[in-house]
Design a protein that fits this description.
Layout: H1 2-8, H2 33-68, H3 73-99, H4 105-111, H5 114-130, H6 136-169
Helix pairs in contact: 2-3, 3-6, 4-6, 5-6
Amino acid sequence: MSKNNDKLFDLESIGIERQETAGDLISDKDLDEMQKAATYKLTFGIYQTSYWIWLIISLAMLFTAEFKDKYNLSLSVFGIIIELIDLAMYIFYAAKTSSKGLMSEKFAKAAGKKSYIIVYLAIGIMYMSWFYSMSIFFRLYIGLVYISFCIVGLYAIRNNKVVEKMNSEE
């Protein structure tokens, strides 16, 4: 029964070819290895740029709410939400790359030290206390950035262990 229902929505089974859609632009289904490598390089560049753009936009929203449009709760909340999404993607990227040992070696060695994590945690707390006169949202913004640095530092430690394990197996 299920197989017959699948055929009802399978346009190829009734002679209609599947058409390319707008979503197929980001598909690598029909690309060869060289095209995939070039596409992944472009995609990484776009991701890298978008990380900084969204971080700056969220900071601009919080600055506007803090200094120009005093006590604009909705602008502050949306600024924090944008930052959370941006940092979540940053942490997700760190998690995925560290699980396969693919982080930049220079970054992973620097960020993969326990002292890195402790220093960034201390700096975050220090900045949050320096800005005590600013809104809770601005202090939350700073805290989230530095906590994400600490989390990425933990993933860098994991990356270094994965690389070490891969090197010992060879």
